[in-house]
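Project standup — Tuesday

K.O.: blocked on the structure for the chain from last sprint. Re-posting the sequence here as requested.
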Amino acid sequence: EREREREKEREKKRERRRGEEEEEEVSVAAMNHVFRLARSKRKRLPEGWDLIEPTLMEFEERMREAVNETSEGKRKNESTWGITRIHWERNRFIYELYYKKKAISKELYDYLVKAKIVDQNLVAKWRKPGYEYLCSLQAISARETNFGTVSSCRVPLKLRSPQQWGPAVKTGCISCASCDKGAPIWWFHTGWREHFEEQRRKHLNKGKRPKEEEEEDIRGDSAIEDRIKRLKQMQQQEKPQDPLLEHEEEQADAAASNQDVTTAD
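H.V.: unblocked you, prediction finished:
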């Protein structure tokens, strides 16, 4: 009998736990047990959750598809490119709402951070100059590169040769430098190459004279001959004499004439 009573008590506890979990599932039914929510049913979700829940559901569904996608025909690192991009988009969505549009409260943002829905470290980087469009923390982790440097996507495109415009191995990002228009540029984006080819030409020609001006200066042998004639004319012109030297020459001439007069007498 005691064993039966204990078993009944255990069953009741199990039912209570199931009831609490069901209530939590109802409040976040669309999240499919992915986000880490409060264990206690007495804790309510912050105000504004209903507004962002449908979008977070979409991100979660896309993330699930990216994780389950087959890697056939892809390189080892390419299978994680889609996950990195969706992770960036989800965090950017919350970042824009909280810091740019002021559309959600601090309470809700802190809740999302605590529930691991928002990557707090990535968002903190976006708030620093030069990291406004950072694609992933992997891009600035020197430990994950062979030469202890940041990922290639952190270097502006105009400073790289077109042969180095491929996506980064770890993230699939072509460029997330703040100075590059449209950053971050992902591996599937198109239409950006022509723009940055022009930017690279401008960067390489900075401080140089245009070819049109150089062609105007090059006028053939006639220009060189004219310059030589002018130089010869300048050399043939008499140099101005010093007034003191002219006075001494006059005195010398006068003394010579006096000597000629005395000898004649």
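K.O.: great, moving the ticket to review. The CA atoms of residues 42 and 155 lie 49 Å apart. The beta strands are 173-175, 185-186.
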